[in-house]
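Priority: low. Protein: Acyltransferase 3 domain-containing protein. Input follows.
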Amino acid sequence: MELSGLVTVRGVPVYALFPLLVRTLARWPVMALLAGSYVLIALTGTYRIAFMSFAGMGGKAHWLVPTFFPLLHLPLLVFGMALARLFLSGRRLSPRLHSAMLGVGVGLLVLIFAGAWLLPSWMRSATVLVPIFALVIFGGAGAGSSVKLLTLPIFLLLGEASYSMYILHIPLRHCWETLIAGVPELSLAPWLHFLLYFGFVVLVSVVVFRQVETPMRKWIAGRGRDSVPRAAVAMAG
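Result:
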C-alpha cells in the first residue's frame, strides 16, 4: 500500500469519530481529558518504540501497524480536542502570556530538530513533542493581539488551509517527484527542491481549501440548518 493511501487509512477512521467524541467527552473535565490522553500518548509512543525495536526495522511491514493503525492515534485527537476546549472555555490568559508560550514552544522545536544529530531519538517522540506543540498551538491561538504578524490575512488563510496541507503533503510529494523525474535535464539543489515542493503544497492546499473544503463546509452547515425544521414538521405530523 502506498503512503498516500496510508494517510487516509490513519486519518479518516479517527476523524470519523469526531462527532461521537464531541458529545461523549463533553461530560469529562477538560484537565482530566488532557492528562488521560497524554498518558495514553506516552504509552502508545512507548509501544511503537518497543515494537519497532523487536521487529528490527526490517522493512515496511514492520512499521506499518505501529505507525498507521488508527486507534493508536485516537489519544492524540482527544488531546487536541481537550486543548481546544481549554482555550475556548478555560480561564482567559493575557496575550503576552500566550506570546511567551508560543515563543518557548517554537524555541524548543528549533533546538530539538536543529540539534537532532546530537540528541537521542526519543527527544523527537510524541511523548516529548506533543506538549511542545501544545505550547505552540495554545500560545499562538491567543497571541494575535500581541503578535500582529499572526493576524495578517495571508497567515489566517494558511491556518485555514493547514488541514489540507496535512492530508495532501504526502500524496503531493509523489506527484512532485514524478513531475521532477519527467524533466531529466533539470537538476535542483536540495534546498531549492524543498522550497519549490513546499510552495507547490501550499498552493494546491489553498486551492483545495477554497474550492473544495469551503463549499463542502457551507453545504454541510446548510443541511444542518435545514434538518431542524424538517424534523419539527415530521414530529408535528
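The chain is about 75% helix and 0% strand. The radius of gyration is 21 Å.
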